[in-house]
Write a structure and sequence with these properties.
By secondary structure, the chain is of the alpha/beta class. The chain has 19 helices and 16 strands.
Length: about 425
């Protein structure tokens, strides 16, 4: 996370005073009449989200004079590099906001506290098991532990131009009856006319989107046998890749101008009616709600389904540093911060999905306004992303999968060539991470 150097220095001095050495859950070193001081590193960045985070910290501090939480603002930019430095120096925050892919390495290196015996029953039961699966990892010694509390998740949806959708005559999908991929393709073809396209696929960063949607057909991209993980690109993994490629080059229903763009880059063209459907993460609804021109009507549709509607899930998490001297107090704060009512506030601020079942039932999460009803309903299809458990995934993603999929979607290589690169070059990367 990128913090200004002055803030970083101040944060390290503050954290060093509060975190020090010692094992997780060690007794407080505060004087008897002094409050326990806990540092909370937050990666919230959107204005609404930062405000919600700070409001909840203020509420906690007013209600708990003996356990005072200091909010430390961070950034996603280089959070893991900074944490490595802080863990090594014994200056890590007590409570750490991150995402589930980062937890595996920190857990196996002994930097995070195993929370499975510290979780309050109410918190544990309010969050479904598939979400807990995203934070359950090997501790490096063959034991499974829970290294964070999952609280926000992202699903893929389709943001649609309502006028063009209605004019096409295509069936409007619902969470209970989403389009199949065949119906999705047919609808996109119907909306392709007069120089405009049915759909846009921004593929500057293609990996997470395609891997998560691949689960629609049971595509996992990785397999483990005899303790060894290898890359797999079989018929199941090829389904979504081929279907997106067909929209681009066979049906010609996908706008080629969007291919090299980031997720939000096609929005100006979307508002002008250059294409009708934009598959995206649920968070993109915020930009549409805030930036769409007056009179522009849009709706949120569920993602298409294959043999199932499953999607891969990655969670935002709160963890406790192994070296925290105030682990019990930190857990109490986390339980408050992530209760149902508060998760609803956090999800609303980030335009993401709460893991809490109580939060998901909150009227704010089920309103039709801005597609919250469709977005929240999509959470039921989320399962642990297979790549979360793969050591070396980040390097495979950066060095192999991203350039290979970019080439494939640009029609520079065939799907067979893409599969060979993903597997052969990918296994060379993973080989270095096998224990």
């Amino acid at each position: 996370m990128r913090i200004t150097s002055a803030l970083a220095a101040a944060a390290i001095l503050t954290l060093a005073a509060a975190c020090g050495g010692g094992g997780g859950g060690a007794q407080s070193s505060s004087a008897p009449n002094e409050p326990v001081k806990i540092n909370f590193l937050s990666l919230a960045w959107q204005k609404e989200s930062v405000a919600a985070n700070k409001q909840l910290v203020d509420e906690w501090n007013k209600a708990n004079p003996n356990i005072q939480v200091t909010y430390v603002q961070g950034s996603w930019d280089n959070v893991n590099d900074q944490l490595v430095t802080q863990f090594s120096g014994g200056t890590a925050p007590d409570v750490i906001h991150n995402d589930s892919p980062a937890l595996s390495g920190f857990a196996s290196d002994g930097y995070l506290l195993d929370l499975k015996d510290k979780l309050p029953a109410e918190l544990k039961s309010d969050i479904p098991q598939p979400a807990w699966d995203t934070v359950t990892f090997d501790d490096g010694k063959g034991q499974q532990g829970v290294y964070g509390v999952p609280f926000l998740q992202e699903s893929q949806v389709i943001i649609a131009n309502k006028k063009l959708l209605d004019a096409s005559g295509a069936r409007v999908p619902t969470p209970d009856n989403p389009w199949t991929w065949d119906e999705f393709s047919a609808a996109a073809k119907k909306m392709t006319k007069d120089g405009n396209f049915g759909v846009a696929w921004p593929m500057k960063s293609p990996v997470n989107k395609t891997l998560n949607l691949a689960l629609n057909f049971g595509g996992t991209f990785f397999q483990t046998a005899d303790g060894k993980t290898t890359v797999k690109v079989g018929p199941e993994e090829r389904e979504v890749l081929q279907r997106i490629h067909d929209q681009l080059y066979k049906d010609k229903s996908a706008d080629p101008a969007a291919l090299g763009q980031g997720t939000a880059d096609p929005l100006p063209a979307f508002y002008k009616g250059k294409f009708a459907l934009l598959p995206a993460g649920v968070y993109l609804r915020q930009q549409v709600a805030e930036q769409a021109p007056e009179g522009f009507e849009w709706v949120t549709l569920p993602a298409p389904k294959g043999t199932s509607a499953q999607q891969g899930a990655v969670s935002q998490t709160l963890s406790i540093a192994q070296d925290s001297k105030h682990a019990d107090e930190a857990m109490k704060f986390i339980a408050f911060f992530l209760n149902g009512a508060n998760q609803a506030k956090l999800a609303k601020g980030d335009w993401l999905l709460p893991t809490s079942q109580a939060a998901a039932a909150d009227p704010a999460m089920t309103t039709k306004e801005n597609g919250w009803d469709v977005a929240t309903a999509s959470a039921k299809n989320l399962v642990v992303a297979p790549f979360l458990k793969v050591n070396g995934f980040d390097e495979w993603k950066t060095k192999v999968a991203t350039p290979t999929l970019q080439e494939y979607f640009a029609n520079k290589i065939t799907i067979d060539q893409a599969a060979s690169k993903l597997v052969e070059d990918g296994n060379k990367v993973l080989e270095r991470y096998q224990r």
